[in-house]
What does this fold into?
Amino acid sequence: MTDSTQPRIALLTDDLNFPPLEESWEGLLAVGGDLSEARLISAYESGIFPWYGEEDPILWWAPEKRSILHLNELNISKSMRNVINRGVYEIRMDTSFEQVIRSCGDIRRDGEGTWISEEIIQAYIALHRLGLAHSVESWHNNELVGGLYGVSIGRMFFGESMFSLMNNASKTAFIHLVKWAGERGFGPIDCQVQNPHLASLGAREIDRTAYMALLESHLKKAPTLRGVWSPTPA
It folds into this structure.
């Protein structure tokens, strides 16, 4: 006999379509497929992202609760304002994408493990070459000491990961991204899964229905800013 309560998670094939988000089980929507550029683009446009361990099959997620940061709700502490005003870090964009994503993986590999496998790295480098994945970087004395990377389609930025080798380096990059995105009419930053660090910056959870409405609106709001991003004013 089979257990009728056992969830049935979709197994992806060569078809790029994903099952309806309502079919997810505790946020897990599908298993398998690949990390081709076309599938990743389809996933982000559908409110889905990959997240899995190095020894696991590819897992695709559409959480019932989504962490987002409305650009006007960014919380900058007094100490962070001091860091920014003193110009501790030089901000660059898209100058060292591969180094950023590998650094994000290394930081987590030294801790609790990482989902940023070589397969993930190569997939997002391919998106970067298409002008859809971007890095925001904090430099100190001409060395990369922190930053973040993510994917942008339409006027949405889907944050993936960040790292810091010096105090507040990744926060400085994130604050710059929020300001940069606001100057260009972006919607909220998609932070995916809430954690205390994101909450301290002003991120909050919304339900999946509200997130999908925001996503649809900002995907259509304006053309995607493809290519190399620059930290220059809009």
